[in-house]
Write a structure and sequence with these properties.
Elements (H helix, E strand, L loop, with lengths): L2 E5 L8 H18 L6 E6 L4 H7 L21 H7 L1 E3 L2 E7 L8 H5 L8 H9 L5 E6 L5 H9 L2 E7 L4 H18 L6 E10 L4 H12 L7 E7 L2 H9 L3 H4 L4 H19 L1
Parallel strand pairs: 1-5, 1-6, 2-4, 2-5, 6-7, 7-8
Antiparallel strand pairs: 3-4
Helix pairs in contact: 1-2, 1-11, 3-5, 5-6
Bound molecules: adenosine-5'-triphosphate and magnesium ion.
Length: about 270
């Protein structure tokens, strides 16, 4: 059965999409290097479709050929989602459930449809035996679709940019996840960790916030050791439509993300 991981943060631009894309590319690379050929499914649950655009070169899938297809009818089944899966241009082991602008309408439908909150979890539970990892990108807003993703995964990674009043926001985000775990009785779910992204040691305020997080009772144990640095390389790679590992494997940001993936696998092994 696949390991299922989502990125969540209600703040925009903190590196959710970059983290999911780089995790997919890195797991693919590591799997191939170890001769294990991990199969990776990336589900784009964000109507901005950045992940879909990067992994497929397209952003025009429409409601029937994207994650939205699961929310069109009272009836649903795994084959609907299976038929939406497309290959990624990043490698044959990476598959994609595309996002679409129509995902905007899903939260409204979800509340009226039978098993609205749970249908994504139900279907992922059926198709995940074909994969080693299922990774979810999400909206910068907590809504019913976030709940659907939360119910479909075992683990959350919360990327944080310390520029953005991060500690307050992080408290709120982690509080929401813990509350939902209780409310929905989802005991398999865990917060895998908090990843500092876009870190710049030159900004004194950032260093101070990092120290505060490292001392914080509740947060310190969740922090990944690695800090992902702010780097223009991320922008360049995205413009080229390729992964960080392909664009600049030896750049600091790629090396940091490779360490992050090592930490993810280490934390996975412990659960
Ligand atoms: N480590 C980094 N260094 C520099 N720029 C970065 C870094 N990580 C992400 N970015 C840039 O910041 C912007 C936002 O990143 P990204 O799209 O990953 O964030 P997000 O959390 O998914 O945003 P949204 O909430 O809008 O979906 C992008 O332009 C990306 O290129
Ligand atoms: Mg994003």
């Amino acid at each position: 059965m696949a390991r299922t991981i989502a990125v969540f943060n209600e703040k925009g631009g903190v590196g959710k999409t970059t983290t999911i894309l780089t995790l997919a590319a890195g797991l693919d690379l590591m799997g191939r290097r170890q001769g294990r050929d991990w199969r990776i499914l990336v589900v784009d649950a964000d109507q901005q479709v950045n992940t879909t655009q990067m992994l497929t070169g397209r952003s025009d899938f429409g409601p029937r050929s994207s994650l939205t297809c699961l929310y069109s009818d009272n009836l649903y089944n795994a084959d609907q989602l299976r038929s939406a899966i497309v290959p990624s241009v990043w490698g044959e082991n990476i598959h994609v459930v595309p996002g679409d602008r129509s995902l905007r309408s899903v939260p409204r439908r979800q509340v009226t449809l039978p098993r609205g909150d749970y249908r994504l979890a139900d279907v992922i539970g059926e198709i995940n035996s074909g994969y080693d990892f299922v990774l979810f990108d999400t909206n910068p807003k907590w809504d019913s679709l976030s709940v659907a993703v939360f119910l479909a995964v075992q683990a959350a990674v919360v990327p944080v940019d310390l520029r953005q009043f991060a500690i307050q926001g992080l408290s709120h985000m982690l509080g929401t996840l813990i509350e939902k775990k209780r409310e929905y009785r989802h005991p398999d779910f865990n917060i895998m960790g908090v990843l500092i992204t876009r870190f710049s040691g030159q900004l004194a305020g950032m260093r101070a916030d990092l120290e505060a997080l490292r001392r914080h009772k509740a947060f310190s144990s969740l922090l990944f050791d690695v800090l992902v640095p702010e780097s223009i390389v991320v922008d360049y790679a995205q413009r080229e439509g390729v992964s960080l590992f392909e664009y600049a494997p030896r750049s600091k940001v790629s090396v940091a993300y490779a360490r992050f993936i090592g930490e993810v696998l280490g934390r996975e092994a412990r659960t």
